Amino acid sequence: MSAVIELAPLTRIEGHGKVFVHLAGSRVVKVQLALTEPPRLFEALLLGKRYDEIPDIVCRICSICSTVHRVTALQAIERAFGLEVSEQTRLYRELAVIGGHIESHALHLFLLVLPDILGVSGFQELARTDPEGLGSGLRIKRVGNLIQERVGGRVIHPVNLLVAGIGKPPAREHLLEIKEALQEILPEVSVVWKRFLPKKASSPPADWLAIAGGTEFPLFGTMVRWRGGVFDSRQYRDRIVEKVTPHSHAKLVTVDGAFPTVGALARLQNDIVLPQGAADAFAAAFAGSPEDAGMMANPLGQAIELVAAVERGIALVDELLEETHVREYPFPVEARAGEGSAAAEAPRGLLIHHYGFDSRGVCTKAEIITPTALNQGGLERDLLHRAKSFEKAPEQEMKRELEILVRAYDPCISCAVHVIPAGDADV
Amino acid sequence: MRFPTVAVQGLTSCFGCQLTLLNCEAELEEIAERFLFVSFPMASSREERCATLDVALVEGAVSSPEDLETVLRLRSRTRILVAFGTCAMWGGIAAMSNGLSRASLVSEVYGAERDVVSFHPQPLERFISVDFALPGCPPEKHEILQLLGALLRGTLPVFPRYPVCMECRMREQRCLLIEDDLPCLGPLTQGGCNARCPSISIPCEGCRGPVAEANAASQSDLLAEKGHLADAVASRTGRFCREWNCERGY
User: Is A418 on the interface with B (CB under 8 A)?
Assistant: First the structure.
């Protein structure tokens, strides 16, 4: 006697996905996570396009992560051409990405996770049962979007961040507006974590993967931390292996044969020095190592990161205000044949872009490794573990618990279906 | 009072149009008060599969049998079906390589061993009748709010049918096309964004699709005169829509 419990469609996540729980009698034998987003084929779309079209196209992979996709693509293109951008450009890019983190984390925590905690189905019910909670989430989210709009020119699919520079930098009054808005939400943001303490739950040990930190909250960098050591993200092809699976439109990713886990918790495992407010919140929220909690504590990690992002945002604006503000223009780009890759921390975890160009600057190779693709194997493993511990429970309860776990990972399935072209991947 | 019932659904897309609705932070609570969202998988686990719908906002292009099934089911129970964004209205970014073989694009990404069912992404109107559209990648917030406001009064908004260029001139901005020789698609593109990109000196990329009576041939000639290569112009104008000399009746 066998049966399949189906969670379809997965809701309150971005993209299309399903979970299948296979039962033999009452025992759970297998769990499959199917990312069923229609194939978008971005890597194939990019081939033959000139370098300056890449950022415009690639940010359309995903709306929530459009800013970080764009910035990562810019960095990869600049590395391929051997370009160095100015300090001012770097600061603006970091600020835009920080805005994306604030928006994404606030959206996930307040609109997608909070309904589970309060036992309602979405924002419509939240508006009745917890108007203060929803209102607070929307106020925080608005500030993230304000930053993205002012720096990127548009909230979703920013246009102002360019190869070798920035289009029109935000006016001084807009920087002050951003600073004021960030300062205004800081007290509110500092206590967000109290709402997202996870229920006690055992979970299989995870292998965390994140950009290796210096002293501050690291969003960009080439070295990534993995199992106590570091490796160079530019050599990802030697470490990260992808396999096409029959049940999902995303490929299964392993690092050195193990399933990696990326995201807020993976970043907090890094030996980074958080800004003061975030460090206080971290100490109070986790009271020990966050590792014990497993990915069910990922929303809690995001709540801590919200504080860090707001504090870092204020520091960045201060730095930008200090500058004498000579208007810089993007410098002329000389295309040349070459390849470049860049890694960044998207709200959901490690993101790698890699492009190759011919001597005219036309794209000949495009590879994108997204956090949700990296997390897929670990999520499936955790789902199996969780399903087994709810074998005896009623089906509805098991379904609800599995959905909560899926949401804790904050998957972004539009992103996940774009992975290394299969041609020379190790299958 | 009866609240209008609404479904919001994404097909082959980045979910940015739905996110723009959720980005109406100042208005979202009021929207929640005045509409009944019976299906909005991105933001709610509520799902009333059989409820009759007053409005369906459908984001994305149709590129798989599942997309097609979803959109046909929605059409059959919806009074006003809205093509939500450029992908739903014109095909959008996913459709830009529709001149190439879909099978070869699929095997490029997934390899030959994996059988993925996918056809050329196409706008909704190839499969169903569409009652209204909000262009844009993503659409502008104020247009979404105007639509919702009009729906509450039992009507649809009337958006002006002039190009981005017109709004740019009204803002008295320097012309990126004529004065700076940049490949700005403002003259061809449906306005409504208040010349968002040209106003920060970024040439229009045409994300809102063709305006009525867009003169694509003349634009191509002008860009050729200014020294832009034909394939670069073709690639740029084909990014969101592959046929510029056509109009939509909604």
Answer: yes
Q: What is the pLDDT of residue A418?
A: 54
This prediction has a pTM of 0.95
| Nearest Cβ partner for B105 among A44, A107, A423 | A44
Name the minimum distance, in Å, from the CA of B176 to any CA of chain A: 13
**A180: pLDDT strictly greater than 80:** yes
Chain B residues whose CB is inside 8 A of the A66 CB are: 14, 16
Q: By the 8 A CB rule, do B63 and B91 touch?
A: no
Of B43, B67, B138, the CB nearest to A63: B138
**DSSP secondary-structure letter at A293?**
G
Q: Phi/psi zone of residue B154: left (φ > 0), alpha (ψ -120 to 50 degrees), beta?
A: left
Q: Which residue of A has its CA nearest to B137?
A: A157
Q: Comparing C-alpha atoms, which of A91, A68, A32 is closest to residue A348?
A: A68
Antiparallel, parallel or unpaired: β B53-59 and B78-84? parallel
List, for residues B178-187, the tens digit of each pLDDT value.
999 999 999 9
Q: Is B146 helix (H, G, I), strand (E, B) or coil?
A: helix
What part of A 216-245 touches B (C-beta under 8 Å)? Answer: 244
Identify whether the C-beta of residue A73 lies closer than 8 Å to the C-beta of residue A58: yes
Confidence of residue A8 (pLDDT cuts 50, 70, 90): confident
Q: Report the alpha-carbon angle A1-A380-A13, nearest 5.
A: 110
Q: Are strands B132-134 and B78-84 parallel, antiparallel or unpaired?
A: parallel
DSSP string, B91-144: --GGGTTTTS-HHHHHHHHH-TTS-------B-GGGTS---EEE-SSSPPHHHH
CA nearest to B232 within chain A: A50
Percent of chain B with pLDDT over 90: 84
Percentage of chain A beyond pLDDT 70 is 94
Give the count of beta carbons closer than 10 Å to the beta carbon of residue B126. 12
User: Is residue B232 over pLDDT 70?
Assistant: yes
Residue B154's alpha-carbon distances to B8, B66, B80, B85, B144, in angstroms, are 19, 31, 11, 22, 15
Nearest residue on chain B to A144, alpha-carbon basis: B23
| Residues A290 and A269: beta-carbon distance below 8 Å | yes
* ipTM for the whole complex: 0.95
Q: What is the pLDDT of residues B46-86, one digit of tens each?
A: 988 778 999 999 999 999 999 999 999 999 999 999 999 99
Checking if the pLDDT of B33 tops 90, the result is yes
Provide the residue type at A215 as one letter: T
Chain B residue numbers with beta carbons less than 8 Å from the beta carbon of A131 are 29
Average pLDDT, rounded, for chain B: 93
